[in-house]
Amino acid sequence: MIPVTVDQLFLSNLGFVVLLKCLDDARTLPIFIGAAEAQAIAIHVNEVKVPRPLTHDLLKNLLDLLECRLHRVEIVKIEEGTFYAELVLECNGETVRLDCRPSDAISVALRVGSPLFVAEDVMAEAGRIPEISKDAHDGGHVKDPKGRPRLTPRELLERQLQKAVKDERYEDAARIRDEIKHLEDTYSSN
């Protein structure tokens, strides 16, 4: 398991994203989450005082009342783009694992101060290394005749996808998404 921390929470063209940053290297794991969960995380991170307990505060209070300790949160797998997490609890001297959405798990972990972990295979599949400016690092890309980094086919498609979404050309975005999936399937079968 890889230790991570909540690095950023932001709104993208496709929805809210929480970025989990590896504590051991430069990789980050972007996870799309719902608006309510994003709000719950933002409220806690920004130390906003609310007059009544929110759902994740209630869960923390319930754990305290039942004398259960949240040891850690683990993001254990990704299937068809959906992430799965588990709460690792100690209750009555026994370790208990509960299936949980990552967004809820992160929100509860932040409230109780529990560490977050990501399975190595999940990070290998969905983790990203943040882009570095081409002046600082060429990223290992082949350069074109003018000295600019040449994009891989996948990088080119991902840029086209981002532009299509930004321009609200959703049919084009779906087609490009399918091309990326086809490209991934082609490379994984070789």
Question: What would you say this structure looks like, in words?
Answer:
By secondary structure, the protein is α+β, with helices and mostly antiparallel strands. The protein has 2 domains: 2-126, Roll (Bifunctional nuclease domain); 137-190, no CATH class. 39% of the residues lie in helices and 29% in strands. It is built from 6 helices and 7 strands; from the N terminus they run E-E-E-H-H-E-E-E-H-E-H-H-H. It has helices spanning 35-45, 55-65, 102-112, 120-126, 153-166, 170-189, and strands spanning 2-12, 15-22, 28-33, 69-79, 82-91, 94-100, 116-118. A 7-stranded mixed beta sheet has the order 3-2-1-7-4-5-6. A hairpin with a 2-residue loop joins strand 1 and strand 2 (15-22). Residues 132-148 have low confidence and may be disordered.
Q: Identify the CATH homologous superfamily of the largest domain.
A: Bifunctional nuclease domain
Count of DSSP strands: 7
Radius of gyration based on Cα positions: 20 Å
- Tell me the helix content: 25-40%
Q: How many strands, what sense, and barrel or not for the largest sheet? A: 7 strands, mixed
Identify the CATH class of the largest domain: Alpha Beta
Structural class assignment: alpha+beta
Quote the CATH topology of the largest domain. Bifunctional nuclease domain
Question: Distance N terminus to C terminus?
Answer: 28 Å
**Which residue ranges are poorly predicted, with pLDDT under 50 across at least 5 consecutive positions?**
132-148
* Topology as a string of helices (H) and strands (E): EEEHHEEEHEHHH
3D shape: globular
Mean pLDDT: 81
> Architecture of the largest domain, according to CATH?
Roll
Strand fraction: 25-35%
